[in-house]
Amino acid sequence: MFSLGHKSIQNMMGVDDDLIDIVELAIKITKVDFGIPSTGGYRLEAEQAKLFTAGLSKADGRVNKSKHQIGRAVDVFAYVDGKASYNTEHLAMVAAAMLQAASQLGIELKWGGHFKSLLDMPHFELGG
After folding, report:
1. What pLDDT was estimated at residue 78?
2. What strands, in cross-sheet order, belong to the sheet with 83-85?
3. Burial class (CB within 10 angstroms; exposed 0-12, middle 13-18, buried 19+) of 124
4. From the candidate CATH numbers 3.40.50.720, 3.30.1380.10, 1.10.260.40, 3.30.1340.10, the one assigned to the domain spanning 6-126
5. What is the reported pLDDT for 1?
6. What is the pTM of this model?
7. What integer pLDDT is reported at residue 119 of this predicted model?
8. How far apart are CA 38 and CA 109, in angstroms?
């Protein structure tokens, strides 16, 4: 069984409690370790704008706000062989655990791997 590292826990500061509950349950049931990157939790407008400018997000943080800016989204990375992995197979395994955890907790969760407009496999957001 895996557990969240100190940095991943810090990186979720400002994230909705329901989403934190999902992540904390998912790390216990996942088949592959995962973490939360430094920009994976709550984001300020300037942080979101920087990701937009770098081409890493469709939300500019000002006109088109990200769910990260209201604490209703989290991004993950798989942790394999001692390093971060964004391999689709690894992220799909993390997604399975995240979606299972959300289901068990009765919380609606959307996965970026199911988005039609942009495949965003590291991304999860609360529904509704």
Report:
1. 98
2. 34-35, 77-80, 83-85
3. buried
4. 3.30.1380.10
5. 85
6. 0.94
7. 87
8. 21
